[in-house]
Specification:
- The protein has 141 residues and is an alpha+beta fold.
- It has helices at 32-39, 88-131, and strands spanning 2-4, 10-12, 15-19, 22-27, 47-51, 57-62, 66-73, 76-82.
- The strands form 2 sheets. It has a 4-stranded antiparallel beta sheet with strand order 2-1-5-6, with no helix packed on it.
Length: 141
């Protein structure tokens, strides 16, 4: 199995598994120092792609951007990643999504109000036409 980071780098791994609220990725070919360099850049971890040994994508692991360290057990080095809790970027994204939804709703409402105004205008014009006497029908003395 392999993983692919946002910058396009691909690394062979033995395991990538979410366990106890954290993402654990096992390596055997990288040094602890190299792993620390790789996994301390949150932007590069925004979406980790899971690849087969042949390089075919079979999954995504988004949002695991907080480096928790490297655990060494025998020759296996396990990178520990967690998710940032309610980051500013996430709050801004949610706020932007809410603003977009509100704008769409207000545009739809404005369109409905315009349609109502047009309908009322047509009704008033129709009433005025019924109430106005036709000059040809007015008797002349």
């Amino acid at each position: 199995m392999k993983i692919k980071l946002v910058d396009g780098t691909v690394y062979p791994v033995n395991r990538a598994e979410i366990t106890n609220g954290r993402l654990e990725i096992d390596f055997q070919t990288q040094s602890s120092e190299t792993l620390q360099e790789i996994f301390t850049e949150p932007g590069n971890l925004a979406n980790i792609e899971l690849l087969t040994d042949a390089g075919d994508k079979f999954g995504d692991i988004p949002g695991w951007t907080v480096f928790g360290g490297v655990m060494l057990v025998g020759k296996t080095k396990t990178v520990i990643l967690t998710k940032e809790t309610d980051t500013t970027a996430e709050r801004l994204t949610r706020a932007e999504a809410d603003a977009i939804a509100a704008k769409k709703l207000s545009e739809e409402s404005a369109g409905q109000i315009t349609d109502l105004q047009i309908a009322l205008t047509e009704i008033y014009e129709g009433l005025e036409a019924q109430q106005s006497p036709d000059p040809e029908e007015t008797p002349v003395d």
